Amino acid sequence: MKINSLYLVSLVLLLLSCGKENDETLPQPEPEVTSCKITETKVSDNGFVTTYFYDSEGLLKKVEAVLPNTSNNANYYELEYDADGRLIKNNWSIPSLNFYYQLLYTYNSAGQVTKLTLSHKNTEGNYVPSTYHVYEYTGPDEMKQRRLYRIDKDQDVLLETEDYFYENGLMVKVEFQGQRPDLNKVYELEYDDKKNHAYQSRVFNMQGYGYPFRHNITKTTALDYKGRIISNESTESTYTYTPEGYPATRTSTRGINTFSVAYTYNCK
């Protein structure tokens, strides 16, 4: 997701006062894009190394998710913001697969995302909208519902709906409804009591599980429409933490698969 921004990066700007009169007449340089904050390393057979690039104001401007020693299936994200620092456009590409997408964000007066439109680039080089999400909220930190639609020339088609349930400010359950009853699922969420680096992020998490990301999810239990556990969608995670209380490492098990993620929070 959304950016502190996304992961609470502290960028220190040194403002030099000497030569102030002359500086006012000189053109101001564009903010330098800095490789800062998280390098997220997924340690698995096909693990990606994800790097986040921030500008001098702490806004996430670019994300690169690449496989070691190859550009195959590498994902690139370039982000744009409005004057209020809200994410409005995300250009997402996978060049090796010739996939090019664009996500456009719409906000309400409270600064919450209300619509997220996904477009794909056609052979003429134009972005064509294909699907969109609509979001509803019950308060500043509680999401009520997300609906996914496919854009159709006659009438847009509702593909899926998710309803969210909270306890003590934490999202504890998600009810998923598909186009058929046998596709319906329930996700139950559990958390630690530590800090999540995505809290108060300015980049919106498309899935939204765990919103507003105050703590870290330690367990997700997925149940099918009959209440049976779906093992390949259920995850358990253990963390180690930095002295500041943020995740340093995460080890997750989903079904028979286990993978680890390591986080670094330094800027350079």
Helix and strand layout, with pairings?
Blueprint: H1 20-23, E1 34-43, E2 49-54, E3 60-66, E4 75-81, E5 87-94, E6 99-107, E7 113-121, E8 127-139, E9 142-150, E10 157-167, E11 170-177, E12 185-191, E13 217-223, E14 235-241, E15 247-254, E16 257-262
Antiparallel strand pairs: 1-2, 1-16, 2-3, 3-4, 4-5, 5-6, 6-7, 7-8, 8-9, 9-10, 10-11, 11-12, 12-13, 13-14, 14-15, 15-16
3D structure, described in words:
With 268 residues, the protein is mainly β. It has a single domain, classed as Porin (Beta Barrel). Helix content is 1%, strand content 49%. The protein is built from one helix and 16 strands. It has one helix spanning 20-23; strands at 34-43, 49-54, 60-66, 75-81, 87-94, 99-107, 113-121, 127-139, 142-150, 157-167, 170-177, 185-191, 217-223, 235-241, 247-254, 257-262. A 16-stranded antiparallel β-barrel has the order 1-2-3-4-5-6-7-8-9-10-11-12-13-14-15-16. β2 (49-54) and β3 form a beta hairpin. The longest helix is centred in the first third of the chain and has 4 residues, at 20-23. The relative contact order is 0.15.
Q: What low-confidence regions span 5 or more consecutive residues with pLDDT below 50?
A: 1-31
How large, in whole angstroms, is the Cα Rg? 20 Å
CA-based shape: globular
Number of strands: 16
Mean of residue pLDDT values:
81
Output the structural class.
Answer: mainly beta
Organism: Pontibacter diazotrophicus
Protein name: DUF4595 domain-containing protein
